[in-house]
Amino acid sequence: MKKIASFLLLLLLFVTGCIDSDEEIAVNRDGSGVYSVKMDMSGMMDMLKELQGMAEKEADSSGAKPGAMLPDKPVDTTIRFSDMPASAEGVSEADKALLREGTLHMVMNMQEGQFKMDMRLPFKRPEDLVAIQGLMQRNGGIMGNMMKGLGPDAPTQEGMPDYNSIFDFTFKDGLLERKVNPERLKAFQENFQSDQMKEASAMFGESSIKTAIRLPRKIKKVEGPGAKPGTDNQTVLISSTLGQVLENPNALTFRVEY
Hints:
- This is Lipoprotein.
- It comes from Cnuella takakiae.
- This protein is α+β, with helices and mostly antiparallel strands.
- The protein is built from eight helices and twelve strands.
- Strands 3-4-5-2-1-8-11-10 form an eight-stranded mixed β-sheet.
- A hairpin with a 4-residue loop joins strand 4 and strand 5 (about 115-125).
């Protein structure tokens, strides 16, 4: 039971494994901008309720206290990253400075079947966005630490592999690129067993994963299996599904010159 719950929470808490994930990178002329991710995971509420019920039955039979996967009351909260506890694990002072202006808005309502997150992270320089992408790869990273703000019973995912970690991200004036790192992909595949991959594909294969890149200048060149320029020639759209990504991680890769 614990293995199943941890696996599902992995899918919930990491961008590339969430149901209906919309990522946006908006770049200004001076290299600043905003990185944002909107996630709608409402489709998983029934499954999570069922898992919570199974956990409670298991706890009753063993006499243990069940851990809370879902809050009893509706949650509609905005967590400011500037309020991150000083004791937050895995987040250095430099990381906190980088995230200071960021926010995470969460809505979770069991009765109405809602579970949505909206994360917004402004950045001042290209290297700041690269660093933010690095934080997203670290053991639950930003999201894992922010979940702790919901209370002691908030879900965690210690030791679980992070799908974001298989990518290398490059951003400099005139270029944005996301590509697969072969060594990290191999390590991920060794940790995340093939039967789990098949289970994820069967349950969430049709979940959409979208990225929009909004640029300050006209596009010169776009590469990537799912990458297409927008009608304004300053926007790049990358679209895939979780099933496609699990089958071929390159489905999320792109190279944009502008």
